[in-house]
Write a structure and sequence with these properties.
The structure is a single chain. The protein is 66% helix and 8% strand. It contains 6 helices and 3 strands, in the order αβααββααα. It has a 3-stranded antiparallel β-sheet. Strand 2 and strand 3 form a beta hairpin. Helix 1 packs across helix 2 and helix 2 crosses helix 3. The two termini are 23 Å apart.
Length: 119
């Protein structure tokens, strides 16, 4: 499993990039000021750090992600399952659904996923 551990601020930063990419680094700094309240220097520091980790690429002032949102979600979901539910998907679902009601559509989507995963 590749390691895509992100802090909350890093995820919020990537979320902006995922929505705008490819994005000019100057425009990215403006978006981060507007959405996160970050100064330009903070944005460029985060950009440099995530580039060094192989998560982003900044070439000719154009920023793109090298990992996708789905990869991060998969990684974090697997870590949560292992850490909090002894790697048991049924235990996770039981805890998650304890005080919730699913719509018929949600139940059908989950049923379809289970059927596809068990084939």
């Amino acid at each position: 499993m590749e390691e895509f551990k992100l802090f909350d601020a890093e995820f919020k930063f990537l979320d902006i990039i995922w929505k705008l990419e490819p994005v000019n680094s100057t425009e990215l700094a403006k978006e981060c000021l507007k959405k996160l309240g970050w100064k330009k220097s903070t944005t460029y520091t985060m950009l440099r750090k995530l580039s060094e980790r192989g998560i982003l690429k900044n070439k000719n002032a154009t920023v793109i992600s090298l990992i996708k949102r789905e990869q991060v979600q998969k990684y974090e979901s697997e870590i949560l399952l292992k850490k909090s539910f002894d790697n048991s998907l049924p235990a996770f679902l039981a805890a998650f659904l304890q005080d919730k009601k699913l719509t018929r559509q949600e139940a059908e989507e989950i049923k379809k996923m289970i059927e596809e995963a068990s084939q």
